[in-house]
Structure formats: structure tokens, C-alpha cells
Amino acid sequence: MALENDKATWDFDMKTGIAKRSVPRTSQAEIETCARCHARRSVVAADYVYGQPLMQTHRPALLTEGLYFADGQIQDEVYEYGSFLQSKMHAAGVTCTNCHNPHDLKVPVSADRVCASCHLPEKFDTPAHTFHKAGSTGASCVSCHMPTRDYMVVHARHDHSFRVPRPDLSVSTGNPNACTQCHRNKSNAWAAEAALRWWGDKARKQPHYGQTMYAAREELAPAEAALQQLVGDSSRPGIRRATAASLLARNGGATSTATLSKALADPDPLVRDGALTAAEGIAREQRLALVSPLLRDPIRTVRIDAARTLASVPKDQMNSSERADFEAALAEYVQSQMVDSDRAEAHLNLAGVYVEQGELDRAEAQFRTALALMPALAGTYVNFADLYRQRGRDDEGERVLRQGLCVAPQDPGIHHALGLALVRQKRMGEALKELEKAAVLPPERPRYTYVYAIALDSAGQTGRALEVLTSAHAGHPGNREILGALASLSAKAGRGAAAVGYAKKLVELDPQDPEARQLHDQLTGKGTPGGGSGPRNRNEE
After folding, report:
1. Long-range contacts formed by 386-390: CB under 8 A, 24+ apart
2. What is the pLDDT of residues 61-79, one digit of tens each?
3. CA angle in degrees (0–180, nearest 5) for 37-43-46
4. CA–CA separation, 471 and 477 (whole Å)
5. CA dihedral in degrees (359, 362, 368, 374; nearest 10)?
6. What Rg, from alpha-carbon coordinates, does the chain have?
7. Tens-digit pLDDT profile for residues 9-31
């Protein structure tokens, strides 16, 4: 493999003790060549050519829940690329071959000696820096800055984000930290106190990506503003900004549209692609205006994801140019799925597109292929049953869902879908049992709890519905659906003060949300009686 910037040297800044690159890294080719195998990614095309951007043929995973902890540390098997993109080393111009032999992937000397090639040992390999005895495990560079996580039981993989340990974040967010990974008999609070004594509170006073992501995942009130700020901060790593952009739909309100619009035009294709995930949550007319330019994006992954995002927009709403661009990008999307045609997920993806295009026979064929390839894929049963719902054949959908429960009895999504199917069949008693299972089975999903509560209210159990919603609100205080339902059902139950309190919280989350303002005004007597917003039901209810 050809190395980039062969003439570059690393020269020490004796004041900081850290080497700087003499020639800026102007290409990602080397890093992205490695990323083809050393990244959590999907393949969108088989025609890879060295030197082309990675996203012409691959879709890198973002720092999503389940793959990474909220602060970006590795959680599932994600390899090295996503971590490295977050690092100061990447920002400083380091490439993979600065540390690794490109052929056997090994470091030429001990890991700590590799670090010493750019970080003066006289400054960094001392007890004054490590606060550990020289030569001890705690004094090792990689122990603190590249902690490991075991995969397949035996493979200890180093985190390549080269982060400074933040045990104080572990206390507030539950993320792991290198300190208690070594000191397993100590608490995060103990480690945080030690770090405070050593380093002071300077780092703690600065906003941290991990706090923003934790707030977004937990749907806490400050999440929206923090996400918007992160997305717009071009000094932050692109993969972090892309992840924040992808979450705007979950946490954003009316004020997120401007941020989303800028993200969709960002110079970094990873940010543009992350923003497309959020764009799926906005109204079709607005979505078309924002996303249609990306159908001509120079990066294939962005083009095809733009087509996927616009798949549900009726073609008669597009002008002739938009329609042509959409058809071309959608054809690329279908072709990209066929790269993995031996996998059930590819056929599930195609089925979803065909459903949104109204091609239900083609969708049904793809669902059947997905089930034949992988009967244990729970999402197939849920989406297949929803196709039957659209065709007015809930009895067949029910059979599909019960078949799914035979192979995945603890999947909350299947229980949720079955509960809704039973509601539509007027079998409320059975439906409530299934919706309750969906609400209590892990992983906890506020949406399922909200739907269960609305079903309880519809069955005349408003008091029980309020109990369920109150408990859910304690765990997810920033969830708008839960707050709106609490306000409306509290008013229905004659709890006026509580209803106004919840409505006020809803307005505080997004003062420009007209539905929240209307509900608040109605409950406080400022609006037209009966004109306010109740629980926000979607088509599936």
C-alpha cells in the first residue's frame, strides 16, 4: 500500500513535548483503505477503486446506541475506524501506518514506545503525568488512553479514540472509564475524586460530547440545543457531528429545521448522510425541498440514502428534474442492496422501499425471501404484518406476528405490533396484554409505553394510564409524547394543576412548537375550548 505524504516528518515542539506533522495530511486515502476492513460498515457497491472516498462503496456506522457508549467509547465490535475518527491523533494528521506495519498490522516496537515517538517520555512517561509508579500497569500509555474491551471472549481490542479518562462522566452517564477498568474493586466516584485531585476541574467545566449524547439518548430536556450546537461546530470530529445530526429528529422540534438544513449541505459527506436519518422525521413537503439536492450528491452513499429518505414522497409532488434524479438514485439504492442479496436485511430494506412506493406485491415477495433467509430476524415479522394491515388483512398479519413470537418470544417490537393488530380487531383485552409486554420488556422504549397508556385510557382505565405515564416520565423527562399525554389525560381526570404543569414543561422543551403552545393555552384558558392538542396518535394506533 502506498503511504501518504512520504515527505512528511514529525518534529517535536519542545514546549508541549508533542510532535507536529511538517506537512498537513491532505488525503484520507490511506485511512479509508484500511477502513474497508477495520470499520463497522455496510457495503453499498462492489466496484471499489483505491483513492476514491470510502463512502462511494461503503456506509460507515455512526456512534449509535448499542455500538458505542454515549461518550463514543467502543461497546459492540466496531473495529478501529469509528474510534480513530474521533481522536486528536486523527485531527493532528496521524495515519494508520504511523503506528502499524501495513502488512501484519503489528506495531514495530512496544505500544508505549510507539507513543514515545511523538510524545516525549521526559514529559509524559513520568509519575508527574501518570500519577502511577514508573513501570506499573497504570503508568502505561495504552492502559489509560487505549483501554481494551473483549470480543469473542478472547480478543481484547484497543479503543482507538485515544481519550483522556473521565470517570466523572461515568458517574453521571454510566460510561466506562480506564481507571475502574484496572481498579475493579473501586467505584466510579472514587476514580472521579482521584482525577479531580490530579487534574483539577478544568475539563469538567467544558461541555463534553458524551453528555450531549447521553441527554439525547435519554430524551432529556437540554438535548435539542446541545445537539444543534454540536452539529454546527465544524471543529468537532465529523463522525460525532454526523451522529448528533442523525438524532435531531428524535429530540428536535421546530427549531431544529435550520440546523438540519445546514447539516444536509455540510462539506463532510458523513454529516450529510447522518442528517438524512433525521430528515425522515419531517413532513414530506419540507423533506422534499431539503433532501432533493442530495439526489445528485457526488458521494454514492449519500445519493442512495437520499433516495431512501424520499421513497414515501409521492412522485406527483416532484417536478420533472427531481423525479429523474430520484429514479436514478433509487435504482442505485436497489442495486446497492443486491450486493448483499444473500442477507435477509437487504431484502427487508427493499421491502420497505416497495411498501412506501405502493408496490405491495413486490414488497410481499421480498418479506418472504427475508424470512426464508433468516427466520429469526424479528423486524421482518413486524414489517410484513404492517403490509397486511395496509391491505386490510389483519388476520393474516396476526398469524405472521404469532409466528414471529415462536422464534423471538421476548422481542418487544413483535408484542407491540401484535397488540396494535388486536386493537384494530376490537380484541381489547388481548391487546392490552401484548402492549403491556412491549412496554416492560427490554430494551425500554418510551414509544411503546406511550401507546400502552393510550390503549389503557381507551379501555376506560385512565387512572392506570396516568400511573404508567408518570413512571415513564420519570425515566424520560424530555419525551414529548409522554408529556403531551400526561397533560391531556390529567385534564381528563380532573387534575388541572398537574395538566398545566406538564403542558408548561412541554412548551419549555420547544417554545416554538405550535401544538405544545396550543395545548398549554387551552389548559390555562387562553385558547378555544376543545381546540387543543391531545395525545399525539400516529397511524399505527
Report:
1. 386/355, 386/417, 386/540, 387/351, 387/355, 387/360, 387/363, 389/421, 389/424, 390/355, 390/360
2. 999 999 999 999 999 999 9
3. 95
4. 10
5. -90
6. 26
7. 999 999 999 999 999 999 999 99
